Amino acid sequence: MFTSIAISTMARDLATHAAARQGLAARNVANADTPGYRATDLPDFATTLNGTATALRATRPGHLGAGTGPRGADPVDAGAEPSPSGNTVSLESELLRSAGIRQQHEMALGVSGTVRDILRAALGRIR
After folding, report:
1. Cα dist. 58→64, 65, 123 in Å?
2. Rounded to 5 degrees, what are φ and ψ at 76?
3. Other C-beta atoms within 10 Å of 35: how many?
4. Where is this region: Disordered (predicted)?
5. Which pLDDT score is estimated for 20?
6. Which residues pair with 77 in a beta bridge?
7. What is the pLDDT of residue 3?
């Protein structure tokens, strides 16, 4: 039922995007001491949502050579300055990025909860 409502679908996509970004941030932190490792992140949600991250949209994982991120978005270089070992992970940047990702995920959960409450009210079942 929730999948047919556009705002609910968008909230689900935002939560999926935030989860994928959090996974990349965790991978970046895990490789903070790996020589030559390049930190990655996903394009912002608006770019991914509009479908400009890739030319085609995948309907399921693995379809059309989909990327590892939501809606086929491929991770991009996070753009940090490399250390002498060639590693571009900045723990401070990853910490800040993780805080922003958490806010994104909480917003998605809040929107989903509001949609659920509206549907319950429409059906006459308030909480």
Report:
1. 6, 8, 34
2. -120, 160
3. 10
4. 57-91
5. 95
6. 40
7. 47
Cα–Cα distances in angstroms (integers) from residue 85 to residues 28, 32, 37, 38, in the given order: 15, 11, 9, 11
Q: In the numeric block, which tokens belong to residue 93?
A: 């940047």
Please give the Cα distance from 112 to 8 (Å, whole number). Answer: 6
Closest C-alpha to 79, from 94, 101, 99, 95:
94
Provide the residue type at 53 as one letter.
A
Find the length of the chain.
127
Q: Which residues of the chain have pLDDT under 50?
A: 1-3, 53-56, 64-68
